[in-house]
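[retry 2/3] TRXR3 reductase: previous attempt timed out, resubmitting with same input.
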Amino acid sequence: VLIAIGRDACTRNIGLQTIGVKINEKNGKVPVNDEEQTNVPYVYAIGDILDGKLELTPVAIQAGRLLAQRLYGGSSKKCDYINVPTTVFTPLEYGSCGYPEEKAISEYGEQNLEVYHTLFWPLEWTVPGRDNNTCYAKIICNKQDNNRVIGLHVLGPNAGEVTQGFAAAIKCGLTKELLDETIGIHPTCAEVFTTMDITKSSGQDITQKGC
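[retry 2/3] TRXR3 reductase: success.
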């Protein structure tokens, strides 16, 4: 049984209404602009309390650091809430960075995207004969921007480690061409991202016969 109750934003009894700060009445979270500024110009909010943002501690730390630098250090750098690597630490881990496919379609239009995907079989699973084609990898590319990778998803062993590494590359503007030019480390799970050649639109079979 999986119970995912999330976090409760305790904002209704701290006096925000006194100074006119608006909250989302449905969930108590605070809407902000891209600089974490509320509707009251001198009030800012960061972290899990933000409406529509990720509830992740590293995101809150990064946003707070950048906010302090903008307010007191002359910086103009804003927190990137899109290219955030994260992992679900279930027995078979799931990791992602960037857009989910559905949001990418609504943001860029399906005709402007190319989605590459594959099932794969970790080498360490071949000896004990564990189920093949359980693990899955996918990248979402923006065809209008040199096939830049705007979403990366992986379901498999050590997905957190895999995702963390590719997250830096995505921040640097990773493209499908660069992935294709990258030499994979055999036989790692991450190698699968350097050999993807089947698009979702093609409808081709993505099952794997071996490692």
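[retry 2/3] TRXR3 reductase: The chain has two domains: 16-73, 85-202.
[retry 2/3] clearing retry counter.
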